Amino acid sequence: MATLQERKHYREAIMQTLYEAVEGNRLLGTTGVKLCHDLAMPSEDLAAACTYLAVEGLIEVDWARGNTPAMVTPTHKGIQFMEAEEARG
Predict the structure, then answer these.
(1) Which H or E run contains 30?
(2) Model pTM score
(3) Helix boundaries (H) for the chain
(4) Backbone angles phi, psi at 77, to 5 degrees
(5) I need a surface site. Which of 69, 75, 82, 87 has the fewest CB within 10 A?
(6) In angstroms, what CA-CA distances link 66 with 43, 44, 63, 78?
(7) What does each of the 89 residues of the chain score in pLDDT, given as a tens digit?
(8) Residue-wise DSSP of 61-85
(9) Closest-CA residue to 57 (of 73, 72, 78, 71)
(10) How many angstroms separate the CA atoms of 54 and 58, rounded?
């Protein structure tokens, strides 16, 4: 199980990677497999981070068998959150 610091890092990394991948278009998304590979993140930690972000309303997740994110897309709120972070620079 990841530490609190690792969990926060995973959530931030997912949001940043997803935001960059979709270029602000909430109709686009990326696969959980790609996120897991690109971020070198254990699959169970990816699932936990995606669950957290989905509950916060920042992403939507289509789940595959075994509690694995199949497709991850940002919500309008998630894009606004990332744009605000980017503006804070």
Answers:
(1) strand 30-31
(2) 0.91
(3) 4-22, 32-39, 43-55, 76-88
(4) -60, -40
(5) 87
(6) 10, 10, 8, 25
(7) 789 999 999 999 999 999 988 886 667 789 999 999 999 999 999 999 999 999 999 999 999 988 889 999 999 999 999 999 989 97
(8) EEEETTTEEEEEEE-HHHHHHHHHH
(9) 78
(10) 6
